[in-house]
Amino acid sequence: MDSHAAMPPRAEYGVRLVNDMMVIIQDGGGVVSVIEDADSVLEHLSLTLPRRLIRQRVYVEAHGETGWFHELRHRYGDLKSVAPCSATQGAQLEEMVLALSGGAHG
Q: Which of 7, 77, 95, 105 places its Cα 20 to 30 Å from the Cα of 43?
């Protein structure tokens, strides 16, 4: 039995998109940023998502900076590095989030 219960991360964040390929979160703008608390954020995501983090890429949108993203590079939820996304990547990620959030079926 898995008795490991993760403490919530110190960083505040909101999940904007989850699919089989990626997870996009937005930094909540708290005292501690998602980048500063990346290990705990990844652990928390891995334990709270319907399926643990395995192959999904994890992108973080900076608080108050629409279109400015970093990738939390990981292996099965264990942080390996943090890398800024290019402006083109950021624009594509933002476009995906906006399309899905505004794509309500009626």
A: 95
